[in-house]
Amino acid sequence: MVRVGSHRLLIAALAACAMAGGGIVAAQQGAAPAAAPVSASGSFEVGGVRVDVAGPNAEAARLAGWKLAERRAWTQLSRRLRGSEVALPEGAIDGLVSGIIIENEQIGPNRYIARLGVLFDRNRAAAILGVAARFARSAPLVLMPVEWSGGTGTVFERETEWTRAWARFRTSNSAIDYVRLTGTGPDPLLFDAGQIGRRGRGWWRTILDQYGADDVLIPQVHLYRQWPGGPVVGEFIAGFGPDNRILTRFTLRVDNADALPALLDEGVRRIDAAYQDALRRGRLRPDALLAVRPPSPEDEVDPAAIEVDDLPVVSTVTTGGAIINVQFDSPSAGAVTGTESALAAVPGVRSALTSSLALGGISVMRVTYDGSIAALRTALEARGWQVQEGPGTLRIRRGAAPAPAAPAAGAGDAPQNATNE
Tens of pLDDT along 4-17? Predict the structure, then answer.
């Protein structure tokens, strides 16, 4: 829940469990889906402020707890940004607060115990503290959160607890410029667990250009459940770039499955800290090969400026055809060869060559086709393939095998043309 005055903007609301043993936080933001990233509005955030306040009734104790949290959070913020406390009257601090985040609370008849987060308006607070309201951030980096559970890697194929945790994370105070995806449209086709093993810079550059990013961040979590509802162990890995360079690795554990959101939130916080540390150390530089772009028309040589005598004598070959990327399952080398042969046999296909191989995962084939991507999709569906279409990309799967025909006669009946000996 968030306290909002007539002059304040509703920033976030976190529902908390008021049980004696504490509670787990769940993120809410209006009617938006759980995986939709929360607003990265420019606010200074101070979290983990603990209060224990008594009052004549529950509502008065709660209000007093929020006021105390505001004062303590302002003290922490001023010390963090200025190195010393900047004293302000309670009314002035209250005017700087843009939201209260309830991380955990316990409400009694006349007592309030809670762990709260406080959001301060960045521009107003920066002016009072004498610091810059903005700070240098990294290049834009696409976030690709991968959750491994039961041996299966999932990114955006379905909503996971890991994508929800990254959606809850507030990026306004991070030096990393995250490009967070909603997982709709072509996102599940372009970002899957098999993409981690692909090193081709051309393919990565094509994807990243669609999202206005310079490189990719690959935070992964491997979840190990001891038994249903029991302890959960999470192994976290912070990867970076097409080569998935590992920046840090750590393990966290909770005693029951109900605490999984808290486990993942802590994992997100630590991975973000690792990325910021790598940025300060100069280890989070975008891959130079991803910055290479094909020559623009302005860079091409004017044919009129070339002397005819300087041209070598060559034979002319007309190529043409649309280049279409086709993703397909490749459990074995035989499956790769078979799929290439099947696509090469489609009328209008000039060539079908695998450009990114991931045995046991999803490979990418580069297909030259005399026609549009929609025409190729129709041709593949006519041959029994299941096809999904994205921008410049097709995802194909083998159609379900036809059901065997029912026998014409019962199992115990003899064929009509049979004779008894």
Answer: 333 333 333 333 33
Q: Enter the tokens of residue 176.
A: 């990393």
Percent of the chain at pLDDT > 90 equals 26
Question: Cα separations (Å) of 285 from 55, 181, 260?
Answer: 53, 21, 32
Q: Which domain holds residue 343?
A: 321-398
Buried b (16+ CB within 10 A) or exposed e, 273-291: ebbbebbeeeebebbeebe
Residue 234 shares a structural domain with residue 179: yes
The model carries a pTM of 0.53
Give domain status of residue 248, yes or no. Answer: yes
Give the alpha-carbon dihedral of 171, 217, 187, 183, to 10 degrees.
Answer: -40
One domain, residues 105 and 165: no
Cβ contact 160:222 at 8 Å = no
How many domains in the chain?
Answer: 3
Range 273-282 contact pairs with CB under 8 angstroms and sequence separation of 24 or more: 274/238, 274/247, 274/248, 275/174, 275/176, 275/217, 275/238, 275/240, 275/247, 276/174, 276/175, 276/176, 278/240, 278/247, 279/138, 279/175, 279/176, 280/175
Sort 358 into a burial class: Cβ within 10 Å, 0-12 / 13-18 / 19+. buried
How far is C-alpha 323 from the chain's CA centre? 28
Q: What is the CATH number of the domain that holds 203?
A: 3.40.50
Say how far apart CA 45 and CA 223 lie, in whole Å: 29
What's the mean pLDDT when you consider all of the chain?
77
What integer is the mean pLDDT of 181-185?
A: 85
CA distance 43 to 99: 9
Element (H, E) at 121: strand 111-121
Bridge pairing between strands 361-369 and 322-330: antiparallel
Name residue, tokens 């299941």.
Answer: 386
Listed as own residue / partner, the contacts of 228-236 with beta carbons closer than 8 Å and 24 or more positions apart are 228/257, 229/256, 229/257, 229/258, 230/255, 230/256, 230/257, 231/255, 231/256, 232/256, 232/257, 232/259, 232/260, 232/263, 234/263, 234/264, 234/267, 236/267, 236/270, 236/271
Whether 128 and 103 map to the same domain: the answer is: yes
What is the pLDDT at residue 41?
54
Residues 340, 264, single domain; the answer is no
Q: What is the pLDDT of residues 285-339, one digit of tens each?
A: 888 888 765 555 554 545 454 444 444 433 333 345 678 889 888 888 788 888 8
SS3 category, 380: helix
